[in-house]
């Protein structure tokens, strides 16, 4: 029987909806093929055996042995497990769960967030023991009633990211399929590099699909077509989603006025920002900030 825990089970989906996080021991000893598509969650996997991950923006990543790999909801992918051994772990979490850490530079530069980064690392025995220990600590913590459990689990995620950034990733022969996949990755990376907004005096400069097309030296229609084809979302939607995420962080973690946040995010008038934020979240900025206090 072929089984592959790439999409969450009903139980995992329930946890994601309620808590935004789940860590579990994966059944990597069974071979199988996952459906191709976009997930709505981030995933970190400690895998064993031979695995091939196929992305829309890349040909494939071939893993052999004990490996750590990251997946994010921006890039559709499928997984083929060719052979494996007992053992292995996976942790999945939503964007809302990780938001409190979003302004961390180490996460923004990690394989979790860099669309053009290398998502796979082959582990030494010492690294395997260390990463396994972190996963087992997460599993143990998940079962507790500790009031600050979510914060501790986020710290474990950060710890795995730090360990991954210590490693020198090997060449897993990642290649772009064509020019449109390359430009999509360049757009996503350029978008992420506009954030975080750290000063009112340095507002967001690239605000529209045309702005990004100009920076990438391509026609805006070509950029829009490539991004939509590769990610399933329009260029404008990607920009709006990222601006909304930054807006929520600024409302929660700064004392800037709504007008200042509007200016920092590139809106000409505060009411333009308020209308945008309400459309994206269902809340006006002041009401959202009040509820977060």
TrEMBL record:
Residue intervals of the HTH araC/xylS-type domain: 185-291
One Pfam family per UniProt: HTH_18
InterPro entries for this protein: Homeodomain-like_sf, HTH_AraC, Tscrpt_reg_AraC-type_HTH
- Molecular function GO labels: DNA-binding transcription factor activity; sequence-specific DNA binding
Swiss-Prot/TrEMBL keywords: DNA-binding, Transcription, Transcription regulation
Keyword field contains Ribosomal protein: no
Hey, what's the signal peptide range on this chain?
A: none
Name of this protein: AraC family transcriptional regulator
